[in-house]
Structures are given as C-alpha cells and as structure tokens.
Amino acid sequence: MTLPDLPGWHARPHDAAFAALDSSAADGLSEAVATERLVAHGPNRIDAHAGRSALLRFALQFHQPLIYILIVSGGIAAFLEEWADAGVIFGVVLVNALIGFIQEGRAEDALAALARSVASDVTVLRAGQRRRIDAVTLVPGDVVWLAAGDKVPADLRLFDARALQVTEASLTGESTAVSKGVEPVAADSGIAERTCMAFAGTLVVAGQAGGLVVSTGRGTETGRIADLLDATETLATPLTKAMERFSNWLLVIILGLAVLGFVVGSLRGEPLLDMLMAAVALAVGAIPEGLPAAITVTLAIGVSRMAKRRAIIRRLPAVETLGSTTVICSDKTGTLTENQMTVRALLADGQRFAVSGDGYAPLGSVSQDGGTVEVSGPLRDLLVAGVLCNDAGLAEVDGEWTITGDPTEAALLVSARKAGLDENRLRMEGPRLDEIAFDSARQYMASLHRLDGQLVVLVKGALEVILPRCTTMLDADGEPVAADIEAIDTASRAMAAEGLRVLTFARIEVNSETLDEMQVAGGLCFLGLQAMLDPPRQAAVQAIQACRAAGVKVKMITGDHAVTALAIASQLGLAEPGEKALTGRELALLDADQLRVAVEDVNVFARVEPEQKLRLVQALQANGEVVAMTGDGVNDAPALKAANIGVAMGAGGTEVAKEAAAMVLTDDNFATIEAAIEEGRGVYDNLVKFIIWTLPTNFGEGLVILFAVLAGVTLPITPLQILWINMTTAVLLGMALAFEPIQKDVMGHAPRPPGAPILDGVLIRRIVLVGVLLLVAAFGLFLRWQALGASLEEARTVAVNVFVAGEIAYLFNCRNLRGPFWCCGWFSNPWFWGGIGAMVTLQALFTWLPAMNRVFASAPIPAEAWLEILASAAFIALVVGVEKRLTRVVR
Ligand code: ADP
Ligand code: MG
C-alpha cells in the first residue's frame, strides 16, 4: 500500500494525521505494517552525494593555479606542434583531475559512511510497546518519543509536547531554539512557523514529545534541500589551505623563473621556440603534480585508521588538529571510569552498612560489622526510595545481568534486591504520579508517588544540593528528629574519600498530585546515603601516562563530588595525593584572568556544571592550548563546539553532543582519545614525509632546466621526460609514504605548536640539499656521457635514471622523520617495496622498450652508466643519512 502524500500535515489536527496514516497514538504501527511500509518507502536515510554535481566536482579539479600552468604549457607545446609533448601534458592534467576526483569522492563517501556508522537509535511505539530501533527503519505512521538531546529522526506531526524546545538551524539557519506545540497552524505557514511539526535533522534541546512520522528519508524537508547543501568545505583542512597558499607562491616563483629563462635565452639569441619549450619544461618540472592527491589520500587513510581504533572523525580538519592537541579535558564517569556502578556502602539511621557482591548481579547482602542485618525501618526506606526514584531497569538475559538506563540508578536496583526488595512489586505499590528528571545542572531527581495512601515526593541527588534542604531525619522508630547535618557530612566525606560516588536521599509529604521544584526546595526529611564504586578504567591509566610522555595534559571534569573525584584521579595517576580540586562554585567566583591562571595548575574540576565547561575551554585556549573536550549532554554542546576538538560519546552521548563534536568515541573510552592523538600525529608525520620527499625532485628538475638555459646547453631532460618522472614516482613511490605505519616515537615528544609552519628550517635545508645533489648528479652525468660520445637520447636517459634512482634512494631517508629508516622495521610497509619494485620495472621499460624509446626519446644505456647512476643515488642517501644524524630533528 502506498500512503497518500498529502501536503499540509501542519494544518490539520493530529487525529486527522493519525487517521490519514492509519496509525494510533496508543499502539503505533504493527511490525507487519511497518515492514511493509519500509519496503514501499525505503530506508529513512538521505544518501547520494549531497552537494555539488559530479560534473561540477570534476570541473573544479582543474581550478588550481598549478594546473593552469600545465594547461598553458600544453597549449604552447601544441602551438609549437610538439604533439607528443602536448598530448602527454594534457594527459597528465586529465589523469590528475581524475585521480583527484576519485580520491575526493572516496574520501567524502568514507566520511559520510563513518558518520552514518554512529547508529542513531530512536524510541518508537510498535504494537503498543515502546522499543529502541535504528532510525533508518522508521516509516510513515510510526509513533516516536523524543527527549532532550535527541535528533529528530524524520518529519513528525507532534501530538504530545511538554516544554519542547527544538533548534532548527540545519533547516532554517535560525540558531535559537523554538518552542513547539501540538496545535495546527495556518496552511500557508512557512517552515519556521510550523510549530506543530518537528523536522528531520533538527535537535531537541529541552522537553519531551511524542510525534507521528509523516515523511522519511528523501521525502523530509531536509531531504528535499539536500541537493542544495554545499559540501565544498568538507575536505578543506588547515593543511590543505596552507598547501594552497604554498602553491600560489610556487606559481609566482615558477612563472618568474620561466620568464627569466626565456628572456636570458632570447637575449643570447637562442631560437625563440626552444626557449618557449624550455619555459614549459621548467613549469612542468617544478610543479609537484602529485601533492594534492597525496594529501587527500593520507588524510583519508588517517580517518580510516582512527575508525579502526574506535574514533569516528566527523570533520576532516580534526585529523590534523588531533596531532597538535595539548590538553584533553575528559569527563570522569564513563570515560575515565568503567561506568559500572556497584553500591558498596549505605548510611541510614546514623549507621554505616556494607553491601557485598560485584557488578549488576543481585548476589550479595547488606551487613554491619561482619553480620548480615535485617532490612527494616530507615534502612528499608532508603532502599525503597532508591528503587522508586529511579528510571533504570534490571534483567537477567541468558544468565547475564544487564541494565537499561543510567548505571547510577541501576546500581540502586541491585542494592535493593540484595536486601530482598523487588523493584517490580515496589513500583506497583508506589505508583509514580509525576517527576522532575535528573539533570547535571540541577544535580538531583525527584518523583511523586502514592505510598501507603500518602502523597510522597522522593528526592535523590548530590549531597550539597539535598542536605541543605533537609530539616529532619528519621530515628530508629521512624520518628522524625532534627537532622544531624554534621554527622551526615562527615560520613559522606569518608565514603567519598574511598572514591565512592555518594547519592543522598530524602522525602517529603505533599498534597498535590503534580510536582514542581518549589515543593522540594526545603523541609525535606533525610533518609540516608548510598555510596557506589565506579572503578577506573585500566586502559585509561596507561593512556594518561602516554599522554603525559607526549606533552599532552589531562584534566578531569566531573559533576561528582571533589573528594570522590580526587580519589579516582589519584587512582588514575592524574592527581598527586593531597592535590586540590577546583569546584564549580569556586570557579564561578573567578574572573577570566584568574581562571586562566587556575586552569593551568588544576587537574581535577569537580561539581562543574556543563555550562562552565565552555569557560574552561576558553580559559585554556587563551593560554594558547589546543583543547580536546569531551561531552555527552545537551548542555555540553557549546563547549564541544568551542573546543579545538569536541569529543562526543558514541554509546552514552546525546545526538546533540554528537552533532556538535568533531570526533565521536564509539566506546566512550578515554584511551581512544589517546589513540586518536597518536594517529593524528602519525598522519601529520606521513604528510611531512611526502612533502619533503617530493619537493627536492621538483626543485632539482627546475634547477636543471634553469641551468641549461642560463648556460646555453641542450636541455638534459625534456618536458615529457619530466612529466614521466613526476607522475610515476609520485604514484608508485610517494604514495607508499601515506601507508607508513605510525613511528614508534610519535608519542615521545611534545605536540607540534599550532600554526607552526609545515616545513621548518631543517627540512627546508634538506630539500635544498637533495635538490642540489640531484642537479649536480643529473647534469654532471649528462654532460659526461655526451663528452664520451653518447647520443643525446642516451645522455638524457642517463639523466632521467639519475632522478628516479635518486628519488628511490632518498625515499629510504624519508620513511622515518626522526631516526634512520631501519627504525621503522625493514618490512613494516609492503607498499614501500612494492612501489620500488614497480618503479624499477617501469624504468627498465623506459630504457629498453622500443615503443617507450619512441614516445619518450629515450635509449638503452650501457652498464657503466648504470653503475654511475646507482653510485650517485647511494651517495645522495648517504649524505642525507649523515645530515639527519647531525641535525636529529625533534619535532
Ligand atoms: P558525572 O557524569 O561527571 O559523574 P553527573 O553530572 O552525572 O556527573 O552527576 C553529578 C552528581 O549528581 C553526582 O555526584 C550525583 O550525586 C548526582 N547524580 C548523578 N546521577 C544522578 C541521578 N540519576 N539521579 C540523581 N542524582 C544523580
Ligand atoms: Mg553523568
């Protein structure tokens, strides 16, 4: 069955929408209907190349200054009726554009595929049951439930909205949140005015809602404009921009030299046409044709290597920025710790109890001084509050105890079960009438129940928030007495010092059936404390050490108590014993300058509100730091955007946070950030390797032509031969560098200062050195073999082989930036040897194959010539090896 595609969902009552889509708010669709509609409507996804058309993308490949020179050169060659030269030059231009086009498309596809691989689940109502499903399988007629932090999965007609706020920037460009409701609006309203609709791709920043899916995938408003979206920015990175500036410089230099050569040669009376041809040779020689493709490929390889290590890059520039990260600000719970909560200690009736057992299996008991205790009175009230003021679930699946919802809350179900309390029965006996959901900024949760004929509000949250609101507590007989604030505070500190996360419980009787914050503002009766263990991740301990060694600072940011945070931090090796934490309250009192000083020394920030993370990022950045900041909630989004690398949690994070982040951790693990930094540095290394490998050849070729013109001798290499060298070596030799494994010492030095030039003095000197060596060897052997009576073709073949052999030899020097090439293992990169083998084969063909001889004006050369070629290549490798040892580049 196909559904009527009626416009104007926003203009009719939601009942009519349900009727039109043959669905209902009570039950949703049946699985059978949903499956049928999925076939009819297709998956709820917008793929295909969003953005520019293929033709335009191809055309844009020619829009590069260096390619302009090549095209003009080809034109000149054609004008001179040098057809072979013209053909090859245009061939190179075309091949180059094709490679660029394919690589760019592949890189874009890979990025898009990775972005999709971060599954986006939605809560949907099917056959009367709420379930979590992959948003891709949504169909029109589905009923979905949204909460703050969700991304709207399809176009929805809202039928239930509670304080719903949505940002529609992706659709309307308007970044402030708009309120949504359920009432129909005028039929001619624009997108922005359709307040009873929620559109695919927009973000829920507050409230809750139920919506009816009216269109999916390409049928959504976002799907309709997908073709218009501009994807130009996606592949630009600081490095590619720097390369663009570099190319422009190169362009000026090459043109200048070409003009110089042309003028000097002409003044000397050389034939004008020869001089033009020389200018063409100079231009094609000095242009590093393979560079743009190499950069894209290297970055793309970096992205896929990071994905293998569970870090999904959402914005390509992040690959490079990761390499220069100087500070990581990490959440504690779930990132540095396992997020495996187990209640270990209780405080009720002024006494401390121990809870035994590990994990979520409810096997264990509540004891005091080694003896199991009878759970009754205030202790029972405490555990019951933990169960009722709770949204988590606990179930045994195939012998494994698994949880749904917040681990902090699941731990409370486990502790209650250990005391013999069953959450399902308790939830039936004390039905929930209303609630105030937990929120990191509020730091508590409250729920209203009908318990034993009374209306009771149960509250749980951070000690600092709950305890000041308590006036009474229960004595052993369940009678209220004045709360002993000091004793409770002491007991909670003792628990926190053990690294336990402490939750405070309280209750108050009310006579309203709805709940608001005012009702729990004071006069509460203290019930007790539950303290839970969340063990530090062992992988994080090593990762923190690795970061320290690499000059990357690690700071913990948590909503938890300072004492708990410090205890965990010292277990992680993140803080020294006796170190101080800075709390959110103290932080709020500091002005921007004071904060700048404070952020440098403090490693642990506790009781921090999400909004304060933004201030921390800004303070660190003001100190010149490159900041990676983690986050998972809606309120973390501003900090994630402001950070140099926003890092979102793939498993436990909201869609809003993922949308704001540059990188998503699929395992929420701190160690993954460290791995990504390592990869980021490796990628940058490999880019530098390619650049310092490729530029000397261009430099050397340019010099050879310039010298020939200035000295008035025949060109030792023709433009055609230069293109042959550049294209074949770039693809076969240079690309191997993109596949180099990460150098082992990559985390052994401080991060690259942001904004530092790609090539420092040492590397520029090396490029000049190798360029000059190539010039001397090629020119020298060319002249020598001409003097020995070789033909021009033979002498030129010698010169070409000097360049290629020199590049192969120098490739060994470029495999490792900081040590000799054998540091990285002889056979750790199969591409390296494969590339060299292929290159040697091609040179043999170039030299001996008659067909190649005809096209490239090459000729077979004698064995002595080969010996001299090999000797000069070995000499180049040796000189660079010595130079590397003497300078010991540490970057
Ligand atoms: P973090 O994620 O950095 O550990 P949270 O913001 O989640 O910090 O928690 C801050 C504090 O809020 C905790 O120390 C705890 O006291 C309290 N808290 C955490 N989760 C809940 C919850 N589900 N219900 C009530 N209070 C909570
Ligand atoms: Mg939390």
TrEMBL record:
<keyword id="KW-0597">Phosphoprotein</keyword>
<dbReference type="Pfam" id="PF13246">
    <property type="entry name" value="Cation_ATPase"/>
</dbReference>
<feature type="transmembrane region" description="Helical">
    <location>
        <begin position="699"/>
        <end position="717"/>
    </location>
</feature>
<dbReference type="InterPro" id="IPR001757">
    <property type="entry name" value="P_typ_ATPase"/>
</dbReference>
<dbReference type="InterPro" id="IPR008250">
    <property type="entry name" value="ATPase_P-typ_transduc_dom_A_sf"/>
</dbReference>
<keyword id="KW-1133">Transmembrane helix</keyword>
<dbReference type="InterPro" id="IPR023214">
    <property type="entry name" value="HAD_sf"/>
</dbReference>
<protein>
    <submittedName>
        <fullName>Cation-transporting P-type ATPase</fullName>
    </submittedName>
</protein>
<feature type="transmembrane region" description="Helical">
    <location>
        <begin position="863"/>
        <end position="882"/>
    </location>
</feature>
<comment type="similarity">
    <text>Belongs to the cation transport ATPase (P-type) (TC 3.A.3) family. Type IIA subfamily.</text>
</comment>
<dbReference type="InterPro" id="IPR004014">
    <property type="entry name" value="ATPase_P-typ_cation-transptr_N"/>
</dbReference>
<feature type="domain" description="Cation-transporting P-type ATPase N-terminal">
    <location>
        <begin position="8"/>
        <end position="82"/>
    </location>
</feature>
<keyword id="KW-0547">Nucleotide-binding</keyword>
<dbReference type="GO" id="GO:0015662">
    <property type="term" value="F:P-type ion transporter activity"/>
</dbReference>
<dbReference type="Pfam" id="PF00689">
    <property type="entry name" value="Cation_ATPase_C"/>
</dbReference>
<feature type="transmembrane region" description="Helical">
    <location>
        <begin position="249"/>
        <end position="269"/>
    </location>
</feature>
<keyword id="KW-0812">Transmembrane</keyword>
<dbReference type="GO" id="GO:0005524">
    <property type="term" value="F:ATP binding"/>
</dbReference>
<dbReference type="Pfam" id="PF08282">
    <property type="entry name" value="Hydrolase_3"/>
</dbReference>
<feature type="transmembrane region" description="Helical">
    <location>
        <begin position="723"/>
        <end position="742"/>
    </location>
</feature>
<dbReference type="GO" id="GO:0005886">
    <property type="term" value="C:plasma membrane"/>
</dbReference>
<feature type="transmembrane region" description="Helical">
    <location>
        <begin position="275"/>
        <end position="301"/>
    </location>
</feature>
<keyword id="KW-1003">Cell membrane</keyword>
<dbReference type="InterPro" id="IPR050510">
    <property type="entry name" value="Cation_transp_ATPase_P-type"/>
</dbReference>
<dbReference type="InterPro" id="IPR023299">
    <property type="entry name" value="ATPase_P-typ_cyto_dom_N"/>
</dbReference>
<dbReference type="InterPro" id="IPR023298">
    <property type="entry name" value="ATPase_P-typ_TM_dom_sf"/>
</dbReference>
<dbReference type="InterPro" id="IPR059000">
    <property type="entry name" value="ATPase_P-type_domA"/>
</dbReference>
<dbReference type="InterPro" id="IPR044492">
    <property type="entry name" value="P_typ_ATPase_HD_dom"/>
</dbReference>
<feature type="transmembrane region" description="Helical">
    <location>
        <begin position="832"/>
        <end position="851"/>
    </location>
</feature>
<feature type="transmembrane region" description="Helical">
    <location>
        <begin position="795"/>
        <end position="812"/>
    </location>
</feature>
<dbReference type="InterPro" id="IPR006068">
    <property type="entry name" value="ATPase_P-typ_cation-transptr_C"/>
</dbReference>
<dbReference type="Pfam" id="PF00690">
    <property type="entry name" value="Cation_ATPase_N"/>
</dbReference>
<dbReference type="GO" id="GO:0016887">
    <property type="term" value="F:ATP hydrolysis activity"/>
</dbReference>
<feature type="transmembrane region" description="Helical">
    <location>
        <begin position="86"/>
        <end position="102"/>
    </location>
</feature>
<keyword id="KW-0067">ATP-binding</keyword>
<dbReference type="InterPro" id="IPR018303">
    <property type="entry name" value="ATPase_P-typ_P_site"/>
</dbReference>
<feature type="transmembrane region" description="Helical">
    <location>
        <begin position="763"/>
        <end position="783"/>
    </location>
</feature>
<dbReference type="InterPro" id="IPR036412">
    <property type="entry name" value="HAD-like_sf"/>
</dbReference>
<keyword id="KW-0472">Membrane</keyword>
<dbReference type="Pfam" id="PF00122">
    <property type="entry name" value="E1-E2_ATPase"/>
</dbReference>
<keyword id="KW-1278">Translocase</keyword>
<keyword id="KW-0460">Magnesium</keyword>
